[in-house]
Sequence to fold (218 residues):
Amino acid sequence: MKTNKTNKTIKNLAQLIVITFLITNLTGCIALIIGGVAETALILGDRRPIGVVTLDRGIQLEADAIISKKFQDNVHVSVNVFNQKVVLTGEATSQQLKDQIQNSILQVKNVKNIINEIQIGIPSSTGSRLSDSSLFTLIKAKLVTTNDVPANSIKIIVEAGSVYLMGITTELEAKAAATVTSKSSGSIKQVVKLFDIITEEEKKKLVNATNTSTQTQP
Fold:
């Protein structure tokens, strides 16, 4: 009973954050106010151990720095990290640049796997990126308000209308998340599932561990 109550509280908090985020995008006035709240909610619902969350942040920072320092003038590349798995999206002007980027990120400590989805071509337009941003917000809102989808343990990546979903989920949760995402908008070109699949028993252990950690925090 306590576990269900905690999960419901997390879900309600996440819904409030998404609504606030949508308002922020429209008004641009309260972005700084919700920053800390959003971070807390993500930690509460995240199935990754705190140590892995920390590793992912380190990978993200180092990978972003490499892209900015070595390649930024010639590419538009986004780096996303979840559970020590790196997804590269965007555009590079040649296959050689695409390969160089992957090889550089492979040198980053603690990276276990790289999914290189960089497309060969000119960098995307501002309009295309704004469209992706709007699509991201829509998908996030849909997932957060869907029962039985662990939205705070799912990372959404949108690039040129393609959606990539990362996270730690059961097979049923992965299918539900992908279905909700694909039905969110007619402008979605494809939904790519990059989940780390766990069993129902493993899910119970992760949820119990998260709830115990939350209850013991001051």
